[in-house]
């Protein structure tokens, strides 16, 4: 049985040299390292100058670099507590060797911190199992965030159908930004885990059966990548749904206003015509009581009735066959039959 792995933080940085001399495998995790700590760590682990440059900037794309005695990984996770549209991604630099694994991240990463708090009091055996657990914790952090995105998309689609508002469009764009940010880091991580997992498993101290661990991480990234692409398509569909619903509602409003204007058009003509002070009208037609009821009121009522009958025959006064609820509501009976 291998010796238990030690979990260290920045307060244990001075103990790193002793662990290296005794060949005691350890995990060192430091959040937002200072330039002095980075320099000291570089001297202890004999890190390449390019590695130190990457740590000092903390703005690298996901990548894998193989140096003498260790592999440098830049991987990304996400903070499940971050709000949609906020600072979601968490950059982590990892140095993997047969004697140690070091993780450095510029901002708080709850999942990694919780993992170290969980492992520090216990004796954790197995170097490759620890490395896998760290990577799995980082890469699996996408899963709860994507589950949350899935729920928010369902709520958004229902809200767009029932009551489309500008806030819905803002939520859609906010979720799209999150998905684009995740896709930008998931895709390169998926590629280098598919390509370079064998190199990592051949590091000194690793065992021959370590490769399946890294293939499992690759599967996690493939699933996450597929979900991101699927949710982006759903959000694009939600955007089209929102625009279609708003256009349909505006069309309904325009139709109602057109009906009102059309009804008042003959009324305005009749009242304007019979309101003229021509001698023939006032002396021979509008000087009788029947003229008031037949021409003054009867023609107005008759024009309204004729227009109402025409609109009714055209189906303009009933529920529109192309209303948003009809167009966007799924046919659940067909879905049931198909299942």
Describe the overall structure.
With 339 residues, this protein is an alpha/beta fold. It folds into two domains: 4-243, 2-Layer Sandwich (Beta Polymerase, domain 2), CATH 3.30.460; 248-331, no CATH class. Helices cover 63% and strands 12% of the residues. It contains twelve helices and seven strands. It has helices spanning 16-21, 35-45, 49-57, 110-119, 127-139, 142-162, 166-201, 211-274, 279-285, 289-314, 324-328, 332-338; strands at 4-8, 26-31, 63-67, 70-78, 89-96, 100-105, 124-125. Strands 3-4-5-6-2-1-7 form a seven-stranded mixed β-sheet. A hairpin with a 3-residue loop joins strand 5 and strand 6 (100-105). Helix 6 (142-162) packs parallel to helix 8 (211-274). It is rod-shaped, with a radius of gyration of 35 Å. Mean pLDDT is 80; it is low at 320-339.
In short:
The protein is α/β, with parallel strands linked by helices and 339 residues long. 63% of the residues lie in helices and 12% in strands. The two termini are 52 Å apart.
């Amino acid at each position: 049985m291998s010796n238990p792995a030690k979990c260290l933080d920045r307060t244990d940085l001075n103990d790193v040299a002793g662990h290296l001399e005794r060949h005691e495998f350890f995990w060192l995790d430091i959040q937002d390292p200072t330039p002095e700590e980075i320099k000291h760590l570089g001297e202890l682990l004999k890190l390449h100058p390019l590695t130190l440059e990457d740590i000092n900037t903390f703005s690298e794309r996901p990548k894998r670099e193989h140096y003498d005695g260790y592999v440098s990984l830049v991987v990304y996770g996400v903070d499940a507590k971050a709000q949609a549209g906020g600072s979601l991604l968490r950059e982590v630099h990892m140095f993997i060797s047969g004697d140690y694994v070091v993780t450095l991240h510029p901002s708080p990463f709850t999942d990694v911190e919780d993992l170290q708090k969980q492992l520090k009091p216990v004796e954790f055996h197995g170097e490759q199992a620890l490395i896998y657990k760290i990577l799995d914790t980082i890469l699996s952090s996408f899963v709860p965030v994507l589950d949350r995105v899935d729920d928010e998309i369902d709520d958004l689609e229902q809200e767009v159908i029932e009551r489309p508002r500008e806030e819905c469009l803002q939520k859609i764009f906010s979720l799209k930004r999150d998905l684009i940010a995740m896709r930008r880091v998931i895709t390169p991580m998926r590629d280098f885990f598919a390509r370079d997992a064998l190199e990592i498993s051949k590091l000194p101290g690793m065992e021959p059966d370590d490769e399946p661990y890294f293939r499992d991480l690759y599967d996690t990234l493939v699933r996450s990548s597929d979900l991101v692409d699927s949710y982006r398509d759903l959000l694009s569909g939600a955007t089209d749904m929102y625009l279609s619903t708003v256009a349909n509602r505006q069309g309904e409003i325009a139709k109602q206003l057109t009906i009102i204007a059309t009804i008042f058009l003959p009324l305005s003509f009749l009242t304007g015509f019979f309101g003229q002070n021509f001698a023939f009208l006032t002396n021979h037609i509008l000087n009788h009581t029947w003229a008031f009821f037949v021409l003054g009121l009867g023609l107005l009522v008759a024009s309204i009735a004729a227009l109402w009958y025409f609109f009714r025959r055209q189906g303009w006064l009933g529920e529109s066959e192309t209303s948003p609820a009809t167009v966007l509501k799924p046919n659940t009976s067909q879905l049931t039959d198909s299942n």
